[in-house]
Amino acid sequence: MAINTDKNSYTILFAVIMVVVVGSILAGFASGLKPLVKANEKYEKQQNILYAMNVNDNEGDGDVTFIPTDKVEDVFNTYIKKQLVIQGDKVTEDPEAFLIDLKKEETKAKDDSYERRLPLFVGEKDGKEIYVMPVRGKGLWDAIWGFVAVDKSMTIQGVYFDHKGETPGLGAEIKQRYFMDDFTGESFLNGNAFEGINVAKGNNDPKNTNTDDNAVDALAGATITGDGVTAMLRKDVRLYVPYFQKLNQ
Amino acid sequence: MGLLSKKDSKLILDPLADDNPITIQVLGICSALAITAQLKPSIVMAVSVIFVLGVGNVVISLMRNIIPSKIRIIVQLIVVATLVIIVDQVLKAFAYELSKELSVFIGLIITNCIIMGRFEAFALGNGPWRSFLDGIGNAAGYGLILIIVGFFRELLGSGTLFGFQVMGDPVEKTGLYAIGYENNGFMVLPPMALIVVGLIIWVQRSRNKELIEEN
């Protein structure tokens, strides 16, 4: 071929054309697949919320098994009665509450004049009202997040945790049932004051038989992730305390 | 193989065994350690790399006469990156669970030295068809080792294959567990992947003495 590929002008032209072509291919792909990706993210959130409420396909002591994605939308609508957004004293119903980005809200809330929006999912299971709160915090390497389901008295009905990049076999175990199941029955309150849940070393209560101590067993080798869970619950669940106080008046 | 000439079929078959990218050339080790704790991600990773390397080799080969040599590495990188992003997006759209499991490692295909290695060593100097075969062959050789390692690590580490309990139930103590068998938790951790790869290299070299280097 007669092209002189060593010329600078050719090199620059080649680079420009390449970038434009590649850019449009990728943009096409991204926008074409976006609805599918968004739907997947939504189903995942719904699965997580339902899981925290103990609506799942778990068998015995087996692994975490969610409601299958093709059914989750219907199941979600059956169990979740209301999606609320709490902003200061204002409580509004918003069917898209689960789209609220906790990370963005947290950043905005650093400005004192901004009243943070708090999503709350009110569901009903076995005739009992259950309130599911999303939480988000920091693990050892990256973000951790989850959903906490409580009843009116802030006693935990179930939790779901997930993480972005905790160490496999150590911190990553926070999404295993043997860790998450321990939270059930613990209360966020100590007397009438908010205390949170401690992921505590030396708690020495593997089956969590004592549900009055505001503590669950930590994971061996995952101290910082465990502390992250403690801090995350303390920081985010505390925000809902005024709402629950009003509810119980 | 009536379809392929002898020379062409060598391109596919050699990397599967005597010129395997992992066990002989020792390339692409880090992803082989990271994602082989279970069989399913190993297979998805293998398929993804076969796609990226097969298509990438063809694209590079088609462009081999017009790529300015000054920026050829960057051009190669862009081609890999584009293909990898496409794989990532497709997985996110159609196999969301799996894409979460593989998370960052799909993105890291970009840094897999097998890919840049084949672009540079083969696709830049050969026609599209031969490059395609070479890409498929090398990626399959890589994938084969991933699947072998994934098979043993999942079987011995978790007692499952594709998530099914093939050894019985460790909690209920049925099957093999009834006679005192225990899962080896160490198999789930990355160092054991290296040891399994080492064992494969040992077996391979003891079967074919020609592969043993003289020092």
TrEMBL record, chain A:
A Pfam family per the record: FMN_bind
- Bilayer topology term: Single-pass membrane protein
Q: Where is the FMN-binding domain?
A: 139-240
Q: Which GO terms describe its molecular function?
A: FMN binding; oxidoreductase activity, acting on NAD(P)H, quinone or similar compound as acceptor
Localization recorded for this chain is: Cell membrane
- PANTHER family xrefs: NA(+)-TRANSLOCATING NADH-QUINONE REDUCTASE SUBUNIT C (PTHR37838:SF1)
Output this protein's name. Answer: Na(+)-translocating NADH-quinone reductase subunit C
Q: What is the lineage of its organism?
A: Bacteria, Pseudomonadati, Bacteroidota, Flavobacteriia, Flavobacteriales
From TrEMBL, chain B:
Annotated membrane-spanning segments are 43-62, 74-96, 102-119, 131-152, 185-203
How does the UniProt record describe the way this protein sits in the membrane? Multi-pass membrane protein
Q: Where does it live in the cell?
A: Cell membrane; Endomembrane system
Recorded catalytic reaction(s): these are: a ubiquinone + n Na(+)(in) + NADH + H(+) = a ubiquinol + n Na(+)(out) + NAD(+)
MF-aspect GO terms: oxidoreductase activity, acting on NAD(P)H, quinone or similar compound as acceptor
Give the multimer and partner information.
Answer: Composed of six subunits; NqrA, NqrB, NqrC, NqrD, NqrE and NqrF.
Record-given protein name: Na(+)-translocating NADH-quinone reductase subunit D
Q: Which gene underlies this protein?
A: nqrD
